Structures are given as structure tokens and as C-alpha cells.
Amino acid sequence: SNKVRQDFRRQVCDHLTGVIQVAERKSVSIDFEQLYWDLVMWGNPKRDVRVEWASRYWGAQTAGEGGDAN
């Protein structure tokens, strides 16, 4: 419903402000165009953005753990 979407957008915007500020302080770049499209597609049953985010996050974590065991 429209009310649910409005509440979701408000919550996301409130949360993202802090996330973006922390990312800037830590010199972490954000792909704002990709973020925009992810948020647009958030509720689309054909594309689970949350799963995509988790895959990218955990994939990056796993790649960062590789390397020399010595």
C-alpha cells in the first residue's frame, strides 16, 4: 500500500543519512546510482535486493579473508 511505501522511504532515508556520513568518514565510496536502483526495486518479488546485498557483502568478506596462512 501507499502508506507502507511512504513509511519505508522515510525509514530508509533516516537510516541512510547516518550510513552515508560514516562511509564518508571512513573513505568508503558509495555507488549512488546503484543504491537508487536497489531502493526502487526493493519490493520487487522478481529481484530480492536484500539477497544481492548480502551476497556482495559476504563475497567481499570471503575474498578479503584469502591469502597467506603464514
Explain this structure to me?
This protein is an all-alpha fold. The chain is built from three helices and no strands. The protein is flat, with a radius of gyration of 15 Å. The relative contact order is 0.07.
Write a short abstract of this structure.
With 70 residues, the chain is mainly α. 71% of the residues lie in helices and 0% in strands. It is built from three helices and no strands.
Q: Which sheet architecture does the biggest sheet show?
A: none
How many β-strands, per DSSP?
A: 0
Radius of gyration: 15 Å
Q: Percent of residues in beta strands?
A: under 5%
* Outline type: flat
Provide the low-confidence segments as ranges.
none
Cα distance spanning the termini = 55 Å
Number of helices: 3
- Secondary structure: helix percent: over 70%
Query: What is the element string, with H for helices and E for strands?
Result: HHH
**Which oligomerization state do the chains in this entry correspond to?**
single chain
> What is the residue-averaged pLDDT?
83
* Structural class label: mainly alpha
Name the descriptors.
single chain, 70 residues, mainly alpha, 3 helices
List strands and helices in order, with pairings.
Blueprint: H1 2-25, H2 32-40, H3 49-65
